[in-house]
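hey so i finally got around to running both of the ones u sent me last week. sorry it took forever, my laptop kept dying halfway thru and i had to restart like 3 times lol. anyway pasting them below in the order u listed, first the sequence line then the structure token line for each. didnt double check formatting much so if smth looks off just lmk and ill redo it

first one:
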Amino acid sequence: MKKTFLILAGILIVAVITGYASKNLYFSWKGSLKTEQTSQQASSEKVLPKTQPKNGSSSDNSSAQKSSAQKSETPPNREKSEGVPASSQSGSLSDNLHGWGIKRNSSHLQPEMPSGIRQTLAQNNAYWIGSPDEKTIYLTFDEGYENGYTPGILDILKKQNVKAAFFIAGHYLESQPELVKRMLQEGHIVGNHTVNHPSMPGLTNGQIKEEIEKLASDFTALTGKKMVYFRPPMGEYSERTLAETKNLGYYTIFWSFAMADWIPLPGGPQEAYQTVMDNLHNGELLLLHAVSKDNLQSLDKIISDIKAQGYTFKTLDDLVKK
């Protein structure tokens, strides 16, 4: 009897301990799961923040604008720079990275730009727009590589008697020397877009100088001409990089309107046309990518209809003279 009682008591004690342990294991697992879910949620929110486009209003623009108009140029295959700017090089200048972004509107008014940024740009010979009182368009193209459309673009510009600026990178200069020479022969400006298309704030001053001057040297060797206009890859800059570009003798050129046209647009040439026309404004510095078939197929109509609205096409030389 005593032995049986001890056995039953032992079983009861083990059951109680096991149940307690199981209960704590469950709550421990549940707590860990909750912690993990919270961590994953926080990570997800950090990676995918809810932000408004800097270069547009989600409520004011057409569906064509929403799908193609972007805050800035952001080409694929973006290269990562290995250079780390030394603090001694920055001096008193800020080295905070800024991505180019502007607030558009649907009223054909000039985009908004904070006065502080305007002042920084003006101090460093950097331009992004012309006079608000002139119906003027400054047409520019970025050329990272040749996609077979630049000859057609040049044909249209010649037909329309419009001069543009083409910003080329190192690969383009090396692979398309005849097209570069044709741009100059037909009265267009060829600008500097660096050798390797890196983010400028990620470079030391020495690396910035090498990226810009190597391309300029090769360009001069090919054409006998000098480069005086510079466009920062992806529109990324800091106070330091703007100052360094100015020190190298360049005017930095941003833009007051651009769209994500380095990929096929959902609405094709009609979307390219409509998006440009919906965003016309005085003094516009228009950025298009020459790799876009949609741009090529809509360009002649774009230029004709811009002229029909009373706008005049001018060059970057005209812009900086003002």
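and the second one:
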Amino acid sequence: MKRNWVVAMLVTGILLGRIPAFGRHSFAAEFDDTKPVKVKGTITAMRWSNPHAWIHIDVKEADGKVANYAFEMGGINQLYRSGWKKEDLPIGAEVTIDGYLSRTDPHVANSQTIFLADGRKLVSPVPGPTGRKPEGR
């Protein structure tokens, strides 16, 4: 009897381990697809982390004040598989980023595309507001 219980628990554990986890938040829960943003600025920080990497840039706004924006990106493995390298985004580099603003913070956004000063374009490896990957992917 005890052996049957152990076998049943092992089989259950194996089967449950094969089910994908759905812990990722949805785009719509955090970002507003009616608030696209495109800003140009200087990289002040780049945090390569999971589940999301973050890039921070200083942007000179219309009123002349400098605001620090934080853009959420995919995780490290997603970025590397999409061709991104840490060397592409050094502190002090000029970039233009487009994405969608946060529902709650006017200086937080989801990045869709990062345009580098040398003309290269890094496309986000995560879905945007429609659930589809951005163009160019």
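quick thing i noticed on the 2nd:
The two ends are 54 Å apart (CA to CA).
anyway thats it, ttyl
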